[in-house]
Write a structure and sequence with these properties.
The chain has 174 residues and is α+β, with helices and mostly antiparallel strands. Helices cover 23% and strands 33% of the residues. The strands form five sheets. A three-stranded mixed β-sheet has the order 3-6-7. Strands 10-11-12 form a three-stranded antiparallel β-sheet, with no helix packed on it. A two-stranded antiparallel sheet has the order 1-2. A hairpin with a 2-residue loop joins strand 1 and strand 2. The longest helix has 18 residues. The N terminus is likely disordered.
Length: 174
């Protein structure tokens, strides 16, 4: 844990993590680094019907009230949208989360510190990024295409399964 001073007050670093389980939409809508890569993948794969459900679990050590945590959880859809999801009819999105922030005992009371409302934008952005990354990582498992970051070029790459059983590679420009 590191502390910084921002606008004259100490700011502590916190963590937001996301874990997802999904049959995340159709490959044709996949976006990587803001570029539509899904159509190129779709043309080389068997046709798949858009299927869309996802369970997102968010864990953080941020001191959030239950209301603030619900607001953070609503922003998980930002990570989905950044990858091309439009949250279609019939899709199911479930986001649950928790905080491990400690409660402080003061006499007969338990005090819960919470983040100031005007400091909520950073957690909103962070949960979108964490959800996006979790979905990309989830795609490394049992799917017709796999998303990864090249250790050599640092570019986002997609390996996809061709109709003939072979594989192709798309590498985004960094």
């Amino acid at each position: 844990v590191a502390e910084h001073i921002v606008n004259g007050r100490p700011v502590q670093e916190y963590t937001i993590g996301a874990l997802v389980m999904s049959n995340f939409g159709g490959a044709g809508r996949l976006m990587i680094d803001g570029e539509h890569k899904g159509q190129e993948i779709k043309e080389r794969m068997e046709e798949q019907k858009d299927k869309g459900s996802i369970i997102m679990i968010v864990a953080t050590d941020l001191p959030l009230s239950s209301r603030q945590l619900k607001r953070v959880l609503r922003r998980c859809s930002v990570g989905m949208a950044r990858l091309g999801s439009y949250i279609g009819h019939g899709s199911g999105e479930i986001a649950v989360g928790f905080t491990t922030a400690p409660r402080v005992k003061e006499g007969a009371f338990e005090v819960v510190r919470t983040l100031r409302e005007d400091d909520m934008n950073l957690p909103f952005r962070a949960v979108g990024e964490a959800t996006e990354e979790a979905i990309l990582q989830m795609n490394l498992l049992d799917h017709a295409f796999y998303v990864f970051r090249s250790m050599e070029t640092n570019a986002v790459c997609v390996v996809y399964r061709r109709n003939n059983g072979g594989y192709g590679l798309i590498e985004t420009e960094e």
